[in-house]
Amino acid sequence: MGGVSEVLDTIRLVVTIAIGVTVLVAAVVALIDAARRPESAYAYAGKQNKRLWLLILGGGLLFAVLGALGLVTLILNIIALAPAGVYWYDVRPAVKNYGGSRPGGW
């Protein structure tokens, strides 16, 4: 029978997919936000340059895509969230006051 183990496997799969998609969305949003900030905002805020942040976030996005496809383990998928988290909670607050593609920032 294996009914309980099948249910647990299904739950594990759903949780893994949900985490993968969440990490993917976070990585995409962070990369888009970083790309639309002016290069000078990073310098004024005392952060690494825009190109480096785009590379870091792009690497995180690569792992997020692999995680969403189930090609990397759950731990690596969660680690892929780190660049977006650092950007969102440290870099973005510092550079957002310098505007973006819209007047007054976003």
Distance between the termini: 55 Å
Helix content: over 70%
In terms of DSSP E residues, the strand content is under 5%
Total strand segments? 0
Sketch the topology as an H/E string, one letter per element: HHHHH
Our Rg estimate from Cα atoms comes to 17 Å
Structural category is mainly alpha
Q: Return residue spans where pLDDT drops below 50 for at least 5 consecutive residues.
A: none
Oligomer: single chain
Main beta sheet: none
Number of helices: 5
Give the tally of structural domains: 1
Mean pLDDT: 86
Using the alpha-carbon principal axes, give the shape.
elongated
Walkthrough of the structure:
With 106 residues, the chain is mostly helical. It has one domain (17-96). The chain is built from 5 helices and no strands. The chain has helices at residues 3-36, 39-44, 50-68, 74-79, 81-95.
Please give a quick description of this structure.
It contains five helices and no strands.
Element layout with pairings:
Layout: H1 3-36, H2 39-44, H3 50-68, H4 74-79, H5 81-95
What distinguishing features does this structure have?
mainly alpha
